[in-house]
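Fresh eyes needed here. Kindly weigh in on this sequence plus C-alpha cells:
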Amino acid sequence: MDIDLHYAQQGQGPPLVLLHGNGEDGSYFSRQLGDFSQHYRVITVDTRGHGKSPRGSAPFTLEQFALDLKELLDRLALGPVLLLGFSDGANTALLFALRWPEYVKGLILNGGNLSPGGVKWGVQLPICLGYGLASLFALFAPGARPKKELLGLMVSQPHIDPGSLSAIRCPALVIAGERDMIREDHTRLIARSIPGARLVILPGNHFVARENSAAFNRAVLEFLRGAAEREEPS
C-alpha cells in the first residue's frame, strides 16, 4: 500500500466496516454510529483521497479502493467482516466482495450502481458536464485535478456485470431511498442478481441514511440480526 488509510472505530463486537460515498468521509455515518456501536465494532474508513486519507500515487479507481480496503483489513488482522457501503462505497464494497469473498460475512449495499447508466439521467447529465469543465480547468490549474478525479469516478465507473453477482454467497441487503438518484429498476436488478438478497426501499432520497436515519438503522440492524441467527448452529 502506498498510503495509510485513515479510519476510526467505536464499540465492541463483530467488526462492521462502513464505506462512505464520493467526495465524503467517514463522518457521513455520524447518525449510524450510536446505534451500530451498541452491537458492533464499527470501523469508518476514509477512502483514498477523501477525508484524512492521502491521495497517494496509485490509480484513483474503485478497484484500487477495494484493494486499499483489503490491505487495511490485513493490517488490522480483520476478517471476515460485515461490510456496509454507501453510493461509491457500495460499489467498492461490491467489487471487494466479488474479489475477496472470504473477507465478507455480510454485505449491505446502500444506493449503489453497477454502471453509470444506473444513475437517473437528470442527475448524471450535470455530473458529466461538471466533469468536462473540471477536465478543462485541470489543464491549467492543478488544484482542479481532485475535482476532476472525483467526478470522473461517477462518469466512468463502475462496470459490473449483473451476472457476476450470482457468485455472492454471504447474506446481502440492498437498501435505497424512494427518491434515490439511482433508478429503482436498477436497484431492484442488483437485489435480484444476488442470491437470497433482501431489498428495502425507504422513504427518502439518496442520502436516506442521513435523512431517515431511524428507519435506515432499524432496517440494517434487523438484517444483521437475521444474518447472525442464520450463522448459529441449530
